Amino acid sequence: xxxxxxxxxxxxxxxxxxxxxxxxxxxxxxxxxxxxxxxxxxxxxxxxxxxxxxxxxxxxxxxxxxxxxxxxxxxxxxxxxxxxxxxxxxxxxxxxxxxxxxxxxxxxxxxxxxxxxxxxxxxxxxxxxxxxxxxxxxxxxxxxxxxxxxxxxxxxxxxxxxxxxxxxxxxxxxxxxxxxxxxxxxxxxxxxxxxxxxxxxxxxxxxxxxxxxxxxxxxxxxxxxxxxxxxxxxxxxxxxxxxxxxxxxxxxxxxxxxxxxxxxxxxxxxxxxxxxxxxxxxxxxxxxxxxxxxxxxxxxxxxxxxxxxxxxxxxxxxxxxxxxxxxxxxxxxxxxxxxxxxxxxxxxxxxxxxxxxxxxxxxxxxxxxxxxxxxxxxxxxxxxxxxxxxxxxxxxx
Length: 397
Hints:
Blueprint: H1 5-22, H2 25-42, H3 45-62, H4 65-81, H5 85-102, H6 105-121, H7 125-133, H8 136-141, H9 150-161, H10 165-182, H11 185-201, H12 205-222, H13 225-241, H14 245-262, H15 265-281, H16 285-295, H17 305-321, H18 325-345, H19 348-364, H20 368-385, H21 388-395
């Protein structure tokens, strides 16, 4: 009989009842923690968080630090889904202290990797790189069969954001090889997504689609609803670049529905930005404006720096598309602000995207000299750094 959430949850609940009656606190905490995982898989993350906190309290009372470390990791993961990235980072740091105290290398490496993920999402690339590199010396000395792909994938993700494509690609490819050997589809999907991003930035649409679809298929097989929605959105972005905005719109609406159901703030902002891009590509300025308005109330609650800046760039394009001079000025101001913020954070792609949009709006507004001058520099910079998709779009203007 195949296992399903409906079949598993009553068993976990009954186990917790028995452990409670026996006075077995360790067993009780483990069963409560398992129930939280099942509830999280059902998509009720807020409830899962409450239950995980109950398990953590029992582990603290009994002095079970291994249980505390594992449950802290679960709580932080739940906080990520709920959009509290700063809080998740603090909880991962608590887990790191425990794993270091217990001298558990795998737990220490995982915690550092998770902290790096949070720093990256919050726009601290230098801090993310330091955290991601920390576990690598121990990783290099491990037997191949004992290695996890997480440290490689995490560092590769940071390197991609910093524009270091060659090293990132090498790490992603080794991550895929390790995850396939271990039968870890979740890790394989993460690495495939990273390679899809790399190929997209290098204007290799065929390669990008191959990796994005591999990630999508793996996530569907694993039943990872949120990650599946993210893969749909990545394919939607690719579809826009391929000149298929109608397909992109359909995929994005499916993803947005999932993000709204899970109350995933940053992902909703991301999806609304992609919807606006798809609408603009179809000449539907009114629909693009509706997507911007839909996301506007939740943008301040998003803690993911790259998503905030990406949305700001799209919003500026939508403002400018109205043709009103006041809106054009507002758009240029938004883009100038986005350029400076992206440059300060080291988010090269977004700095280039903001520059591209600024140049295009200047040219379309009759300020061709300024727009062309900055566009020429953009082509040179993106070509040298390997951002060939942006180079292609700049040449087309």
